[in-house]
Amino acid sequence: MVHALHVLLALQFAAGLTDVQPGRLLRTEAMQEGEACGSCAAGLECKCLALNRGLKVCQRPGLLDPPRYALAWERQGLSCEARLPKGLKPIPSPPLIATGEKAIDPRSIEQPQELREWAMGPGEGFYSQYLLLHHPDDKLLGLPVLAGEDVPAQHVEKAAATLRHLLLEASISNETLADLAHAGVRILLAGDRGEEDVGDWVRHPEIRKEFTTGLGGGSPMFPSTGIKAGESQALLAEEVFHTIQYTAMKPRLVCMYHKAYKEAMELRLYTTDGSGPEIDGEPVPTVQADEYLAMAMQRWFGSSEGAKSEYKVLGNTGSSTGRASLKKLDPKAFCLLSTVFRADDDWNPEPDEEPWRSYRNQGMDIAEVESFCRPVLGELKIGCPSDDTTWPNIRPRVIP
Length: 400
What we know:
Distance between the termini: 39 Å
Helix content: 25-40%
Mean pLDDT: 90
Order of helices and strands: HEEHEEHHEEHHHHHH
Structural class: alpha/beta
Largest sheet: 4 strands, mixed
Number of helices: 10
Low-confidence stretches: 1-7
């Protein structure tokens, strides 16, 4: 009987129907700090690790709670359980077909049948451009970049070049790209008609309404990540980073950056991106801790976006790089990012624009960064889940 119950629990956990991980049923002792909730040990409480992610863990009171004043800035309308807002029709990911560095028309009779069938079926004949950013060890594992006829080809190729550097050269490990690929992530580019942009996203087959902030980052529940053609490569990097937060970062790392966010709020380094009142403002909602680390990522790559209103650390200037300023003023965010991106990378998202035209990024010595960050990361891990803790396997019902 116990074995049968254990099997049932395992199936329910895999389907996202329970918070209790397989194996908890057979334990009689209380769950310790950072463990997925069963019966928590004395002094601990069962709390959501991160809204909209579906995982509750045993925590000491107040471990991840930001200052009381900041609660009003948190995004409204979310609960611990993951859900998709109305107005979305997730479709299967396209087949992964090697393309080289130029986009192909997936609808063409010259392309493999499985790709044509996807393009004319779930893709509704909309996507005329398909380019695969493939994993270096497997040309059929990667991220498709998709666009319609309303996007110039050069924007597709530029986005692919950004993704290639971000995920294969700047990234600590190729596993990040592999994790995104296994989650079915695809990158969508929309046309940008300026003041007449209403309807640019709803032309895409998965999107049935206009979202306040556009498409943005993706997740396993909705793996499409997108920006409009012509928007900056720094913004593309940020939206892909949000997708990394949702699909590639383990609960331990998410817990760690929530702790860093709490301290940044206490120090008044970070305020808010103003998304608090938004309910279903984007397909995959980001909470303030997500936005905080994404803003720190902008500093890592040199941008001062939001320095006056959101995050007080500066990007590249005549006296310092954003990465160096981040290390000095917000070492926790700096060290967290050093586990995702190479500190010696000197990529400039828009080399012909400011601040990169005047103040280029400069790499740092990786060994020195690792030595500096070891105690910082060790402190952040305290109270967080173990490295083998995983998110509930929550996926949407896709429309074929």
